[in-house]
Write a structure and sequence with these properties.
Rossmann fold, 336 residues, 9 helices, alpha/beta, Quinone Oxidoreductase, Chain A, domain 1
Length: 336
């Protein structure tokens, strides 16, 4: 059986590789992928060659073992159907719809413990958002919003929109988002923000200050732009906190920390989904958090955020679109 996989080969270059897929080992299941979702922030860093060489790709996922370098197969949101199983795999796995943290590929082999069966009330196109929904859940947990707070979210890409949709369920005094693109700003309003500002507007911070007098108690920086972090800090109130969910790769920007930052006792909080905040680890596990992410998929039903459904053979087109005309897309999903 032939397996088609997306492979990043150099900055700005993506190819489709074709390999022979071995039969499953006795402890493995063979999955035929139906959909896989691009995670634009991280995958554009890879597409543009902005990742730090030698950094482990993901130390928690066997499917993403190794270090960042070309050629690289990447992705971590795949939904498919089990079409064969090894002799030691329980036969009820065959035919199941499953989610797995796998690169963009038409078929993959995985142990049952690396597969999550889809619930009957969650569609495959909603399930393909599970990885980014878990990231959004983790961001909200790390920010710990308090009733009545003013909250601002910089960036309304897919992670920003999912985070916004979760925050909109809290009894906040205000929830304001900022993004460069009208398509995303409209989606943000549908997700429940009280306002979504044009991040490129010269007076964006002044507008935000008018909506949140005294500054935001809690700010999320999920735009992927390190320049936005400086603006997020500037928008934060005394003793407020900034949760940094973006991964910047090799991108850098200067921060103005010589003004009100220290006197305002602003806290910068790094957030990364591969682990749990230590203060939560006594009560929370990754398994508990992933179940919560499934529940949030039921509430949010994010498949409406899919703007493009492309065959995997058009992967080069998908990344060119995200790189050159990001204002036209929110979520691109590969079909197999």
């Amino acid at each position: 059986m032939k397996c088609l996989s997306v492979e990043f080969t150099a900055p700005g270059q993506v190819s489709i590789s074709e390999d022979e897929l071995p039969d499953p080992a006795p402890t493995q299941a063979l999955v035929q992928t139906l959909f896989s979702a691009i995670s634009p922030g991280t995958e554009l860093l890879i597409y543009r060659g902005q990742f730090p060489e030698g950094l482990p790709v993901d130390e928690t996922l066997a499917s993403l073992a190794g270090e960042f370098h070309y050629p690289l197969r990447y992705g971590y949101s795949a939904v498919g159907r089990v079409i064969a199983a090894g002799a030691q795999v329980e036969p009820e796995w065959e035919g199941r719809l499953v989610f797995s943290f796998q690169p963009h590929t038409s078929h993959f082999l995985a142990a049952p413990q690396d597969l999550m069966a889809l619930h009957a009330d969650i569609s495959p196109e909603d399930a393909v958002f599970l990885a980014n929904m878990e990231t959004a859940v983790n961001l909200v947990m790390d920010g710990a919003p308090v009733i009545g707070e003013h909250v601002a979210v910089f960036g309304q890409g897919i992670v920003g929109l999912l985070t916004t949709a979760l925050l909109a369920q809290f009894p906040l005094s205000s929830l304001v988002a900022l993004d460069r693109y009208p398509l995303r700003r409209n989606a943000s309003l549908e997700a429940g923000v009280s306002a979504c500002l044009d991040a490129d507007a010269p007076d964006a911070l002044e507008q935000l200050c008018q909506l949140q007098p005294g500054g935001a108690d809690l700010v999320y920086e999920v735009s992927g732009s390190p320049k936005a972090l400086d603006r997020a800090i500037a928008a934060t109130a005394y003793s407020g906190r900034v949760v940094i969910g973006s991964w910047y790769g090799k991108k850098q920007a200067a921060l103005d920390l010589g003004g009100r930052f220290h006197r305002s006792r602003i806290r910068l909080v790094s957030s990364q989904v591969s682990s749990l905040a230590p203060e939560l680890s006594g009560r929370w596990t990754k398994a508990r958090r992933i179940e919560l992410a499934w529940d949030m998929l039921r509430r949010v039903r994010p498949k409406s955020l899919i703007t493009h459904r492309l065959p995997v053979s058009e992967a080069p087109k998908a990344y060119r679109l995200l790189d050159q005309t990001p204002e036209k897309a929110i979520q691109i999903v590969f079909k197999y």
